[in-house]
Predict the 3D structure of the following.
Amino acid sequence: MSPRNADHHEPDDPDIAQTMRARREELGLSVSQMSKRAGVSVQTWRNYESGRSRVRADKQDSVWDALGWESPSPWSALRAMTGTKSGRGGSEQKPRQGRSGRDRLSPELLGLIDEMDDDEELVIDDDDIEGAVRAILGSSGLLDELAQGAETLHLPGWDEIPTELAAGYSPRLAGMLGEKAARCFAMGAFLYDRSLAEDLDGLGELPRGTHLGELEDTHIGTTLPNLWLTRYDYEFVFQMRRSAQLLCLRLTGEEELADDEPLVRSMAEALALHDVFDLGCTIGSATHGVLVERETWEEWVDTLSGPDRPARRAIYTMMIPPADSPEHFDNWFAPFADPFVPDWGAQAPPESDDDAIVVDLGRNQR
C-alpha cells in the first residue's frame, strides 16, 4: 500500500483507459505491439483503451509490467470482484447494501441482468441451485476469473480453511453458529489482518498524523464512518488490528474465554467483528461461490455482540454522538460498561442451502 502519487495506477482508476492509451503512445508502441508485449489479444487491448473492459486480476501484473508501471495493489482484485473503489477521493460514503450479502456481487458482474425479477432478486430453480449458479458463472467465464482472484489474494480452498487459516478458524464458533460462519470468520480475519498490516506499512512511511484517507488503498478507511476520517491514523489502525487479533485469540481458545465471559468488550472490537464477517462473507461469495445472505451473517454478529447491534450504531452515525456514548470515537477502545455475554452453549442447527450456497471452484489442488 502506498501514498497517492502521479505514477501509481490501479485497474479501477476512473481514467485508467485514457491513461493506458497515453502511456502506450508515450512508449511509441502500436496497439499490436503493446498487446503482444502484455500477452493479450489486440482486441482485448482495444477494449482496455476504450473502457469497454477492465484488466482482469490474472492479467494485471503482465499488463502493468508491459506499461512499465509498478504492480497494482493485490486489493484491486478484491475490488474488481466486489465493485468497490480505491481510496477515498472525497467525503461521500456509499450507502451499504441492506438486503443481503448476495447483493454485493453486482448483477452486471455476474451477467444476470436478464435473470432478475421485478424485486431485483436472482431467479434460480430451487431444484438445482448449485447447478444454476455454476452454469451462470461458467457460461460468463467468471468461474475461472473468481478462482484467479482467490489465488491473487492467497486464499485457500473452502475445505482447506480450517487448516490453512487455523489462526482464525474456531471450532467453538463452528459448533455454535455452523461451519459456514466459522470459515467465513476465518477468511475475513485473515483478509482484515492483512489489509490493516498494509495500512500500517503505508502510514509508517508518511509523517505522523497522516490518516487513511491519504493512502492509495485502504479497506477499513472505506467501511468506517466518514465522520472520524482524520482520526484514523497509525495508532488507531494498530489498535484496530490488535482488537481483531484478540477476537481470534478468544474464539480459537488461545486466550481463555469462560462461558460467562463476553467476546466483544469494546466498540472497537464490535466494529472489527462486524467488518470481519462482512469481509469474509463478501469475499467468500466472490471467490468461493459461498453465497451467504446479509441477514444471516448479521445475525451471527448479533449472536456474538448482542441484540443492541453496537457496531451498526457506530457505523451509521450521521451526527456527532454525545461525548460519553460508546459510539463517540474517543470511547471506541474503552471497555463496555455492560458487555453482552453470548450463549456459548448454543448448538448450531443443521447446515442447509437455505442461507448459503457453496460452489466448488475446482481450484487450489495442492
User: Anything to note?
Assistant: The radius of gyration is 21 Å. The chain has two domains: 1-72, 101-357.
